[in-house]
Amino acid sequence: MESPLAAILEPWLMRPEAIDWESPCSRCLASIRDLQYMEPRPELLQAAMVYWDPIMHVFRFYEDEMCPTVEELQAYLRGFTDCDTLAIPPFQEDTNQLLQTKLNIPEELSTSVIQDGELNIVRLIELYGPEGALGDYVGQAHRCFVLSICALAAYMLVSADGRVSPSLVSIASQMGVRKNILPIVLAKTLMGLDLVKSGQANSFSGCPLLLQLWLSDKVGVLEAPQAGFQNFPRYLVKRPMLYPELLMVEWYAFLNDMQSEDIVWRCLWLNLQKMTVNSTGF
Known about the structure:
Layout: H1 4-13, H2 26-34, H3 42-48, E1 52-53, E2 58-61, E3 64-66, H4 70-76, E4 85-86, H5 95-103, H6 107-113, E5 114-115, E6 118-119, H7 121-128, H8 140-156, H9 167-175, E7 179-180, H10 182-198, H11 208-218, H12 235-238, H13 248-256
């Protein structure tokens, strides 16, 4: 389930100096980097596909229907919580021109980054990474923007066929001005479930790690968050799974036995400092 790009990107993404903390997208990028701490469990998602309804776009366990929401994804990735404006899915756009503007990349190199309608992430890393060929030709802001594109391709907007759409340049650009890209991520993830369910794809697209995190929470196989800790960066992401070694057939048996009382409903996005209770009548 882990994107092959994640392994290529990890040495750069985990460097302390990789993120430009002066950049508006720094908190978003730091939250995406937190997904590195998760252990992919594709067996859980594969077993859960039996319960996915592509018409209603819900998982149906026993009498309960559930689907991830943007608010829940924001609770896991705290860096997106103050992104009030929604990002717009890109349509027709001159990606080469956007690359030259945002990356300060020479025109002759921009053509090597987009080939056959696909964004060459490995080439971007070769040019802008820690040992990038462009060296001092580009600044930290340009490197951080490229890192955002690569992180989206490796974690948030993974493609089932391995191809990377040039539209990620526009999405990263919007994330760079604090626009919320999570609705786009959620839509891509749900459509990816439809493709797997119909047999049109063998792997999940969008953000399988976020989907795994959400589903694990709902079926109660993640350690319950301790009071006062859920707002800490990466705390919700790093919680251990209670049954880490189950095979797909064992996950299927586990999910098949789910009852309504086994579903865990948590409102992790609600940060209540006080609660007023009317005790009239007691």
